[in-house]
Design goal:
By secondary structure, the chain is mostly helical. The chain has a single domain, classed as Rhopdopsin 7-helix transmembrane proteins. The chain has helices spanning 28-31, 37-66, 75-89, 92-100, 105-119, 121-137, 139-145, 150-171, 178-204, 215-241, 250-266, 268-290, 298-304; strands spanning 2-7, 13-18, 24-26. Helix 2 packs across helix 3, helix 9 (178-204) runs antiparallel to helix 10 (215-241) and helix 10 (215-241) runs antiparallel to helix 12. It is globular, with a radius of gyration of 21 Å.
Length: 305
């Protein structure tokens, strides 16, 4: 009897026992029954995504559609990210069946594809960070490129990469394909942290002849700091743990580390739309106070939205 263990860059673990006759399949619940805390923690976060993430992302889509005449340059990436997250947030019931009751190939393939798509949400997040970085650090070039179609082309390119990654993950024919995810998340995490720290540094600089930060810059600084904290909260666990998989006891990694790390990463599908909605509420209150006039620098306004 031989055992084949397949890991996905999602939160799913498939264990298939291969025999000379009929294959017997074992669920994650059965294989981790002595260490259930990891995947139970993960399932709790997934059902938070189901109950909170879907309505929050639908609200984001509605607000972007409603305010399309006065949208920020990052909204096209936020829109596609919301669509991706809605697809992901629909999966917890099917995943619960797979983890605890069934381990069939059809369910496995469906979840494999969806979680491959979710893995690539980092691409859209990186585009959002790059757009805001350009707005603050290179405002002249940003203004020249603002009204061009390159963001739509970039979004289409991100979807092409996402679908290619998800299909490759689903068919599972590339050896050691999980290393692609590790490289991608390390590169995206470093890039997003760099962009946000650069924005924070630029916003912290006072204008000529001023000793204090402008109030609008101060609000933008706080918002970017919150965004950076959320990025670290969601993505530092997998970044810090997955490259060192070989140093963990296999059962500990399979039943604990795997699910805890992906739990923090996947809850971003609820946290990110809630952050966007909170910013929209803040921007609306500022517009009321300013009676529709521009209250500050354009770069700070782009960052705050």
């Amino acid at each position: 009897m031989a055992m084949k263990v397949v890991y996905l860059n999602s939160s799913i673990l498939h264990i298939q026992m291969l025999t000379n006759t009929t294959p017997a399949q074992q669920t994650v619940f059965e294989s981790c029954k002595d260490m259930p805390a990891g995947f139970l923690f993960y399932l709790c976060l997934q059902f938070i995504n189901l109950s909170l993430g879907i309505p929050a992302n639908v609200m984001v889509l509605w607000l972007i559609h409603k305010n399309k005449g006065d949208s920020s340059t990052s909204d096209i990436f936020i829109l596609h990210l919301a669509i991706l997250d809605i697809l992901f947030c629909l999966m917890p019931p099917l995943e619960l069946v797979n983890l605890m009751y069934l381990a069939t190939g059809h369910i496995w393939s469906t979840l494999s594809f969806v979680y491959g798509v979710k893995d690539c949400s980092l691409l859209f997040l990186s585009c959002i960070c790059l757009d805001r970085y350009m707005a603050v650090r290179h405002p002249i070039l940003f203004a020249e490129l603002k009204d061009r179609q390159h963001r739509k082309v970039c979004a289409l390119a991100m979807w092409a990469l996402t679908l290619a990654y998800a299909v490759t993950r689903c068919v599972d024919t590339v050896p050691n394909f999980e290393k692609v995810f590790i490289v991608m998340i390390l590169a995206a995490f470093a890039f997003m942290v760099f962009c946000n720290i650069s924005i924070l540094w630029a916003l912290s600089q006072s204008g000529p002849g001023r000793d204090e930060m402008h109030p609008v810059k101060k609000r933008a600084f706080k918002m970017v700091l919150i965004i950076l904290a959320i990025i670290v909260f969601n993505y530092l666990p997998p970044v810090a743990l997955f490259p060192f998989k070989q140093y963990f006891v296999p059962d500990v990694f399979r039943c604990y580390i795997h699910y805890f790390a992906f739990g923090f990463m996947d809850i971003s599908s609820s946290i990110q739309p809630m952050l966007y909605l909170s910013k929209e509420k803040l921007n609306a209150s500022l517009c009321v106070k300013c009676k529709g006039s521009c209250c500050g620098g354009k770069a700070a306004q782009e960052v705050s939205t």
